[in-house]
Amino acid sequence: MGAHRAQLFRSVVLPAALPYVLTGLRLGLARAWRVLVAVEMLTAVGFGLGWLIFGAREFLNTDVMLAGLAMIGIVGLTAREGRVREAGAVTVVRWA
Length: 96
Prior knowledge:
It is a single chain. The chain is mostly helical. The protein has 4 helices and no strands. It has helices spanning 5-42, 49-58, 62-90, 92-95. The mean pLDDT is 79.
């Protein structure tokens, strides 16, 4: 139809692929957060939410453990939904 390669990429290919890219970003961010907390629990790091939960487990501080778990959920949800929703609003919604 007379479009150049750059125009075709910007107008057709990128809008078609971007929802899948953002979905992968959202899933990857959630998995990365879970792995980060798991690594904190397994290694001898002296700070972090994983260390806080394992330290509270040894002294039977259930309230600190539950607060740590709630923080993991809140930070993970905020990171996953906040940044990805922001990126989606800037790109996908604009093209729809």
